[in-house]
Amino acid sequence: MTETSSNQSTEGGPPGRIGIGLELDATHLKILEVLRENGRISVAALAERVGISRANAYTRFEALRADGAIRRFTAEIDHTRAGLGITALIFVTVRQQMWRQFRAELAKMPEVEYCAITTGQHDAMIQIRVADVAAVHSMVTERLANIPAVKATETVFILDEVIRRPYVLPSDRGPGRPPRRPAPAPAQDPVPLGKLGFVGAAEGRAGLGKE
Amino acid sequence: MTETSSNQSTEGGPPGRIGIGLELDATHLKILEVLRENGRISVAALAERVGISRANAYTRFEALRADGAIRRFTAEIDHTRAGLGITALIFVTVRQQMWRQFRAELAKMPEVEYCAITTGQHDAMIQIRVADVAAVHSMVTERLANIPAVKATETVFILDEVIRRPYVLPSDRGPGRPPRRPAPAPAQDPVPLGKLGFVGAAEGRAGLGKE
DNA sequence: GTTGAAATTAGTACGAA
DNA sequence: TTCGTACTAATTTCAAC
Question: Please, which domain of life does this record's source organism belong to (chains A, B) (predicted)?
C-alpha cells in the first residue's frame, strides 16, 4: 500500500456542507460497509467482497475518498489500555454570542474527544477521556469554568459503553424494512442525500461551526 | 497487505476488562498516534514515521492488535453523504433489573451508533443517526417506548458536531504538561494503565455489560 | 466495467548486534 | 529487544479487451 491518505484533521471544517458531489449507489454503500468494519483491507480484497472488479473498486474507492464520503481511516484504540480509563460527559450552557470563544477554547483541550451542539436544556455536550476522576474535576472547575463563554456545566460519568459502532449506514436498516416511506419515491434516488440536514450551526448559534 | 484484520465487532464484548497484557511505552503511543490519524498507512511507512525498524514496527503493530489496545481499523464516514443527515441523542431512564432486556432490544436497532451507561439523572445515553426527523420520532415513540425496560426518554437533536476525534491519547497532553501529578512516580510506570477504571457495569447495573 | 500481466510494495524469516 | 537483509507473497498499476 502506498501511503495513500494524507488524512488531515477535519476538525473545524465546514460542517454544514450539504452539496452533493457523488451519488452513492448500492455498491458504494457496500464498499463503505466493508471499510467501516475493516479499514485496512486491501482494495483487491475489498473488490472481491463487494463483488466487483479491482479496477472498479479502485475507482470507487478513490471517488469516495475524494468526495469526502470517507473522511479518513483511523484506528479504534482501547482508551483504558492507553491509560485513559475515565470517560465523562459535560453538558455546557454557553452564553449567547460567545460561541466563537467557546469553540476556540475547546480546541485547546486535547482530552475532548467529541463535542456537539445540541437542542434542549443545554447548548453543547462534550465527551472527555482522562486518566482519573481528579482530572475530570480539574477540567470542569479549572478549565471550563474559567471560560467566560461558559455559563454553566453539568457533568456525568460514563460507566460503560455498550455500543460503539464505527458509523451507521442506511443499509444497516436491511432491505426488507424501508426507513420511513414504504414505497413512495417514483424515480428512486439511490440515497436521500442531505435530506433535512440541518447540521451546521443554527438558531443564533452561528460562529461556532465556521471560522 | 494480507487481509490481516478479522475485525469482529466488539459490541457486547467484555467492557470492564482491566487486566493488562502489554505495557505501553512511548514508542507504542507514537504508533497509536500515527495509526489513529491514518489507519491505512503501511507498516513500512509507519516504522519510518515512528523512527524504528520495519521488523520492530511489525512486532509492535501485531502486539497492539493482539493485546486489544487497537480494537479495530475503521473508515470515518460522512453520515450526511450517506443519507443520514439527522443525529439525535436520546437519554433513557431504565427500569432497574431490566437492563438485560434493554440491552437486547438495543442490539436490534441499527440506527444506534453509540450507547453509554451514565451516572446522573438518566441511566443511558443513545446516539442515533437517521435520514429525517420523522425517523427520530418513530424511533422514540414506537420502538423505544415499547420496551418495558424503558421508563422514560428525553430526546435532543444535534445541530452540529464541532469536534470528533478518533481517540484521545495520553500523549495529546503534550510533554510539558503532566496530567495531574507534577513529578511524583518514583519508578515511573510508562502509563498508568486502568487507573481507577470503573468502566464496566456498576452500581446495580450489572447484567448490561456482560449479559 | 472487466480481465490479465508487469512492476512495485508489503509481509516474513532469518542472523547479527 | 532491536536492527538489517534477503526471500516470498501479495497488491497496485497499466494495459488491452
Answer: Bacteria
**Residue at minimum CA to C1' distance from nucleotide C2:** A53
> Mapped to the 3 state alphabet, what secondary structure does chain B carry?
CCCCCCCCCCCCCCCCCCCCCCCCCHHHHHHHHHHHHCCCCCHHHHHHHHCCCHHHHHHHHHHHHHHCCEEEEEEEECCCCCCCCEEEEEEEEECCCCHHHHHHHHHCCCCEEEEEEECCCCCEEEEEEECCHHHHHHHHHHHHCCCCCEEEEEEEEEEEEEEECCCCCHHHHCCCCCCCCCCCCCCCCCCCCCCCCCCCCCCCCCCCCCC
pLDDT under 50: residue ranges of chain A? 1-19, 176-211
Q: What is the pTM of this model?
A: 0.79
Which residue from A74, A134, A154 is facing B74, i.e. has the nearest CB?
A74
For A9, list phi and psi in degrees, rounded to 5. -60, 145
Distance measured from the CA of protein residue B17 to the C1' of nucleotide D2, in angstroms: 31
Distance from CA of B8 to the nearest CA of A (A): 8
Q: Return d(Cα A9, Cα A16) in angstroms, integer.
A: 16
Which pLDDT tens digit goes with each residue over B142-174?
999 999 999 999 999 999 999 998 888 888 876
| Neighbour-count burial of B89, counting CB atoms closer than 10 A to its CB (0-12 exposed, 13-18 middle, 19+ buried) | buried
Chain B residues 149-188, Cβ below 7 A from strand C: none
Half-sphere exposure of B112 (CA within 13 A, CB side): 24
Q: What's the pLDDT tens digit per position in A38-86? A: 999 999 999 999 999 999 999 999 999 999 999 999 999 999 999 999 9
Helix axes B43-50, B54-67, angle to 10 degrees: 100
